């Protein structure tokens, strides 16, 4: 199984990037996870969507090739960050590469609610609106107080979170059997 991670933060020390890297490392023997950067994705522009820049084509091709998408996002202003919305806008148009492609969502924030509102919005965007991506039911991953759960090297050190992720990833792989 091949999965791509789309991380909603482009900062170097992003907790959400570190969370995606934890999944990449810990389950490396179970599935391949490629983390896609949103840093070089231009702003969506309907005028150029039919002749999109190479960075957009490359990004969409990676998503198209994947069996599933892992969305790992912070919460900005009670919703998803602009960079993530921008990526979704590109994915939702022309060849609609997300159509029917399964998704799983996670999020990390320094607050106690751990991206609840952002994930609510993301679920609605992915499932109910144009992307038509089936979502792993239940198994909601909210990593609150993220600054207390990673060490200085960026490793996830919170045992409860590590164990919970083992369960969620197990459920994800079981659920994915219907798609791969
Ligand atoms: C935030 N943050 C934040 N946190 C939260 O729980 N709810 C929110 O609505 C917001 N809004 C928000 C807006 C903006 C513009 C920034 C920069 C930050 C805090 C956010 O959760 C925190 O900075 C995370 O560490 C960002 O994720 P990464 O970059 O560490 O992955």
Automatic annotation (TrEMBL):
Pfam families: FMN_red. GO terms for cellular component: cytosol. InterPro entries: Flavoprotein-like_sf (IPR029039), FMN_Rdtase-like_dom (IPR005025), NAD(P)H-dep_reductase (IPR050712). Residues 1-147 form the NADPH-dependent FMN reductase-like domain. One of its GO terms (molecular function) is FMN binding. Belongs to the azoreductase type 2 family. This is NAD(P)H-dependent oxidoreductase. It comes from Psychrobacillus lasiicapitis.
């Amino acid at each position: 199984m091949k999965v791509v991670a789309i991380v909603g933060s482009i900062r170097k020390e992003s907790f959400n990037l570190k969370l995606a890297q934890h999944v990449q490392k810990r389950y490396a023997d179970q599935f391949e996870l490629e983390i896609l950067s949103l840093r070089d994705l231009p702003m969506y522009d309907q005028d150029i969507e039919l002749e999109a820049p190479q960075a957009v084509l490359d990004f969409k091709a990676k998503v198209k090739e994947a069996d599933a998408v892992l969305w790992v996002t912070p919460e900005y202003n009670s919703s998803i960050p602009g960079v993530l919305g921008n990526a979704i806008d590109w994915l939702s148009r022309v060849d609609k590469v997300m159509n029917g492609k399964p998704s799983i969502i996670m999020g990390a924030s320094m607050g106690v609610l751990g991206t609840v509102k952002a994930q609510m919005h993301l679920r609605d965007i992915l499932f109910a609106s144009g992307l038509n991506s089936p979502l792993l039911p239940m198994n909601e991953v909210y990593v609150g107080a993220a600054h207390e759960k990673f060490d200085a090297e960026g490793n996830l050190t919170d045992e409860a979170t590590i164990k919970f992720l083992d369960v969620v990833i197990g459920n994800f792989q079981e659920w994915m059997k219907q798609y791969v």
